[in-house]
DNA sequence: GTGGTCTAGACCACG
DNA sequence: GTGGTCTAGACCACA
């Protein structure tokens, strides 16, 4: 389920966190679902168990998943709502960065809106939702 | 003019780059304006000259500013006409990713447009609509 | 009767011990009362029988309960008088440490007494004054 | 300044966290003070730098200390007030545990209050404020 | 089998 | 020199 890009500048544990959040948001994993154990996931993505553990701990700290001692790790009930809240701040920052870049590429806000429409259509129509 | 937050997760040199770009966008500094020297700015923001130098080099690489040997560093004239194909493709892809994420967070295209306007105002003008 | 919080940082077997003591304290279970068997309790609280067993063994070691071969586990008569003078010294030392910590946190002796009353009520009665 | 007990059941990183908090509460280290670097402290207490790092990260997450990239780690301005808030919850739980234990030792709430007075006097008079 | 802790040693970005 | 990341391998408590 999780794909790690070892060439990425982003640390492996952050990639795990990010992708796990996406899986929650997409509904691929649902509240109550059991996640692969630290060792299992480490084997699957070919990483060190400690790295996976670090990702799981951060996700737990954020309240996305929870650990039941000796039984494994599970998705919490409120995972999706928590994720959505944090996402808004993150996305506005992304938009801000993007607009700064756009300016230096000679792209104005109007053009960005046109693109939004274009992409919106292609996503709905073409079912390229991934 | 430039405010550094030493507690931020963002490296200082990136904060300098980011804020210098915004100053250009807002028109606080205009094409042809002379920027403070590396050592001056380093003194002002209490940072290592190497750090400021790294930021200036990156800004120069992006064509935002230019260094005239022995005369100092200046904002370039044609900063806004760097339009190149690669950048456009890249930004549309960024927008696409962002819209997909927005979709899973329950954010629609209309909301994104509203945010674009908000951010556009805060970047150009002064009022922080955030 | 016993409520386990699988999310708690406290091990399940400690939660069982703790709650069993409280049940004795509140008088919900009295000396001579038969406790559920290891397997019964394990089923009720959805835990591993080994875990319940570990809790019962510790309670037995402390003299709170006793196991009668083939007949089950019972609350002892003299549960409350198992503790000796050494315990008193230990508790006064605990109190002393606690008062020192309280001092540095700006909590005075009066506040500690108020808390004692609060906690005393919640343990004996039912209303959670917390 | 920090003493680690390798025999303690408490993990080393928690001992560091705990003792650092006490040093803050006591005012031995003040807001703005620079803490020993990860490597320095690791050398001093004879532990692995990673272990010290883990402690520092947790303290930073709690807002007690802050990291200035490449410059070191410092005590935050609001360290003491934050510590005091968290301490209240912790101490009430300690008191609760202590009262349960007291019950089994035949000690009532009145006796505890008397002890509080006794200890309070000895701490003020004898300057045994360890 | 599960996660939690610790050590040792390596490499990297930042300043 | 500073912390951040990752790997490898060990041991322990809990269930």
UniProtKB/TrEMBL annotation, chains A, B, C, D:
It holds the Pfam family GntR. SUPFAM superfamilies: Winged helix' DNA-binding domain (SSF46785). The lineage of its organism: Bacteria, Bacillati, Bacillota, Bacilli, Bacillales. Residues 10-78 form the HTH gntR-type domain. GO terms for molecular function: DNA binding; DNA-binding transcription factor activity. The keyword Lipid metabolism does not apply. This is GntR family transcriptional regulator. The keyword Iron does not apply. It comes from the Bacteria. Keywords: DNA-binding, Transcription, Transcription regulation. SMART domains: HTH_GNTR. Gene3D superfamilies: Winged helix-like DNA-binding domain superfamily/Winged helix DNA-binding domain.
């Amino acid at each position: 389920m999780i794909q790690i890009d070892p060439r990425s500048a982003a640390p492996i544990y952050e990639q795990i966190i990010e992708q796990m959040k996406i899986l929650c948001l997409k509904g691929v994993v649902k509240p109550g679902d059991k996640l692969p154990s630290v060792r299992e996931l480490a084997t699957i993505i070919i990483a060190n168990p400690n790295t996976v553990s670090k990702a799981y701990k951060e996700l737990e700290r954020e309240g996305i998943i929870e650990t039941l001692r000796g039984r494994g790790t599970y998705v919490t009930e409120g995972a999706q709502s928590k994720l959505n809240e944090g996402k808004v701040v993150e996305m506005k920052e992304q938009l801000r960065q993007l607009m700064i870049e756009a300016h230096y590429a000679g792209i104005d806000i109007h053009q960005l809106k046109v693109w939004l429409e274009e992409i919106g259509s292609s996503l709905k129509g073409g079912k390229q939702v991934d």
